[in-house]
Design goal:
Elements: E1 2-3, E2 24-28, E3 31-38, E4 49-52, H1 55-58, E5 62-64, E6 74-78, E7 87-102, E8 107-108, E9 113-116, E10 123-124, H2 129-136, E11 142-145, E12 149-150, E13 155-165
Parallel strand pairs: 1-2, 3-5, 7-10
Antiparallel strand pairs: 2-3, 3-7, 4-5, 4-6, 6-7, 7-13, 8-12, 9-10, 9-11, 11-13
């Protein structure tokens, strides 16, 4: 990992090549970003939640939709869509707009902690007390809701204002 203040690739841009030094971390305007490679065979969309792909092998350099093996190591949210095998920015800390999952009639309250679930590219805000405790227990990253709302329908991806705290 390299902390840099020199940005070769503007935040919000993507590249086919590693023009920024993969794993680079940049802080701007109270937010932290990491330059990563999309390890999936499909595009990851802007505001999608991603996790680090095989961090023991690749370090904090490659991301993909969360699966059981990397679910406890959230990377953050994608700044701009990153094509398969390409490079782009992921926001790891600070206030962000993120895709979240809601359940009909369940409130997402300010301060609620979101977690990543297997195979989902959204932050899931649990509705039971036990699930809420598990959302941050043993996790190295989370999203905390800033803008409360109650879903009127089951929605698999709704934009929600969150505070990110990921590695």
């Amino acid at each position: 990992m390299s902390n840099v203040n020199l940005i070769v690739v503007p935040i919000g841009d993507t590249r086919l090549n590693d023009d920024q030094i993969v794993g680079s971390v940049v802080e701007r305007g109270g937010k932290t970003y990491r330059w990563v490679k999309n390890a999936q065979t499909t595009t990851v969309a802007a505001d999608d939640a991603v996790a680090y792909h095989e961090p023991s092998t690749n370090g904090l350099t490659q991301v993909k939709t969360p699966v059981t093996a990397n679910i406890a190591l959230p990377a953050g949210v994608v700044v701009a869509a990153i094509a398969a095998g390409s490079f782009g920015w992921v926001q790891t800390k600070g206030i962000a707009n993120a895709h979240c999952k809601t359940v009909k009639g369940k409130a997402v309250v300010r301060g609620a902690f979101g977690q990543l679930n297997n195979g989902e590219d959204v932050w899931h805000f649990p509705s039971t007390t036990a699930d809420k405790a598990a959302a941050v227990s043993g996790r190295l990253g989370y999203a905390s809701a800033i803008k409360p709302h109650t879903a009127t329908t089951n929605v698999s991806s709704v934009d929600t204002l969150v505070y990110l705290n990921c590695v």
